[in-house]
Specification:
Elements lengths: L15 E13 L2 E14 L7 E2 L5 E5 L5 H21 L5 E10 L9 H15 L8 E4 L4 E4 L11
Parallel strand pairs: 4-5
Antiparallel strand pairs: 1-2, 2-5, 3-4, 6-7
Length: about 160
């Protein structure tokens, strides 16, 4: 049976995707990673005054709450992996702004900073209609840690 793809939302200049919550879950064994990311997407006429450009694309990210630097780096990193999908989807717009409002980490979870990046990809798939990218996640029992395959790099720093 062939999977049906959800049609991409029709964005126009100045419109936005209202704040929405995406929950990323990965469970192997008794414990797992769970992260809830609240974000919104806006198409804006000019480069946003408050925000950080993602690579050299017309895609920007802004954080409205205080986030630890590592979470900010991971969320921005994963957004950079799909930035071209956002700019291709919206050729008429000058800039695409992703605003991250909240990152909730429920109790009783094996949290790793990488989960925030995985949540960003999931949020964009669900709310911006992009295809995203697949990032395999496995559990390394010897190190008691989840391991993400970032396509040849082990971290946001390319190590």
């Amino acid at each position: 049976m062939k999977k049906q793809r959800r049609a991409q939302p029709e964005f126009t200049m100045g419109e936005q995707v209202s704040p929405a919550i995406y929950e990323y879950k990965k469970r192997v064994g008794a414990w797992g990673m769970i992260v809830r990311l609240t974000a919104e997407l806006s198409i804006v006429d000019d480069s946003p005054a408050e925000g950080e450009r993602v690579q050299d694309k017309d895609v920007w990210i802004r954080f409205t709450a205080t986030f630890p630097a590592t979470e900010r780096e991971w969320i921005t990193y994963d957004l950079s992996l799909v930035a071209t999908q956002l700019t291709i989807a919206e050729l008429d717009a000058r800039s695409t702004l992703v605003t991250v409002h909240d990152l909730e980490i429920p109790l009783l979870t094996d949290y790793q900073e990488e989960a925030s990046a995985l949540a960003m990809i999931g949020w964009l798939r669900e709310n911006a209609g992009i295809r995203g990218i697949d990032i395999p996640v496995d559990f390394d029992k010897d190190n008691n840690r989840y391991v993400c395959d970032w396509g040849g790099t082990d971290s946001i720093r390319g190590e």
